Amino acid sequence: MTLTLPPGMSGMFGYGSLLLRSSMERTLGRPYPDAPAVATVRGWRRTWDSIYPNSRFYFEPSAGERCYPSHIVYLNIRRDPAATMNGLIYVVGADDLVRFDERETVYDRIRIDGDLIEPTVTGGPVYAYVGKPGFLLEHAVPPSQAAIRASYIAIVEDGLRELGPAFRQQYDRSTDTPPAESIVSDRLDP
Description:
190 residues, alpha/beta, Hypothetical upf0131 protein ytfp, 12 strands
């Protein structure tokens, strides 16, 4: 399959919360008009190690007690020469990229065109977001320092349900298991 990008447009490779179309649309601020292209890249693996400073999400380690983790852990991608990873390619314009750069402040936007196995993309670049140095969890810490939101996992799971069992199987093969001790039932301050 070939995906031809219109002039001035780019491809955005979604691999975490962007597997759920409605998550993409929330950032765009409008409905996404077409079906995203299912894609596979070589040399990348999903990891649970991108950290975002936190001040609003909390969990309750015991009744009535609030704990605000210093950081929230999100999916990231890291180089792994033995891996192939699936995701979705959305076609976006320059203004959309600005919105995503604002959303993904702890990530660098990099080109991954050369790593695509499928589809073949012509007419423009394809980008993915990779965790920035300084915002990567290098070793296990307690949830009070860095926690994975159960609500974030639910977003990814909803996207995987929409994409079906074959997509899910490939996702599982190319994704580290989130450490259970880091997952918290999170709530958001209003």
